[in-house]
Structure to design on (184 residues):
């Protein structure tokens, strides 16, 4: 949950994007993003706490300490052990159904999936810097790369001309769901 909270804002993702290129201090991050340092600091603290970003202190000749940040090479895995959260996911889905109705819960979960997918695609774009993405490249970099690194156990089922079908073997909400990502 802490990792999800740390990554829940656009500012955190922008900070990560900057730090993938080079090590930076708070002021440099603030200037690059065009926001005050007081708004940058809480995001950096969360990213450091969950192990995604590493903090280094450098003592300058003046004796002043300068903190710099970089993407950590030892970030904690973001995976979910298979079936450990089955009860929690079932309770969450049942609560959504009783609060929103079957159709409302379906719409909410679909919208969440789309948003998570868009954020993951943005992170993938930032990381790979690919000019274009065809289904085969998507399967290689997103399914077999990004999802696997995040702790999922993905398996590409089929790669078509305009789509990728893959299976996640330990999805938090579905024990064995098949996701069809079509070009639209």
């Amino acid at each position: 949950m802490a990792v999800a909270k740390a990554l829940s804002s656009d500012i955190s993702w922008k900070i990560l994007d900057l730090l993938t290129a080079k090590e930076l201090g708070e002021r440099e991050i603030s200037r690059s993003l065009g926001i005050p340092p007081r708004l940058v600091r809480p995001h950096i603290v969360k990213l450091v706490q969950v192990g995604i970003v590493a903090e280094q202190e450098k003592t300058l000749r003046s004796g002043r300490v300068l903190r710099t940040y970089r993407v950590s090479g030892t970030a904690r895995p973001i995976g979910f052990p298979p079936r450990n959260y089955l009860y929690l996911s079932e309770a969450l889905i049942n609560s959504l159904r009783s609060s929103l109705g079957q159709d409302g819960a379906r719409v909410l979960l679909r919208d969440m999936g789309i948003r998570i997918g868009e954020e993951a695609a943005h992170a993938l774009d930032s990381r790979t810097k690919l000019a274009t993405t065809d289904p085969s490249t998507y399967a290689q970099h997103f399914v077999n790369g990004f999802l696997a690194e995040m702790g999922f156990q993905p398996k590409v089922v089929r790669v078509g001309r305009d789509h990728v079908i893959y299976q996640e073997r330990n999805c938090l909400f579905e024990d064995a769901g098949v996701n069809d990502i079509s070009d639209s």
In short: The two ends are 31 Å apart (CA to CA).
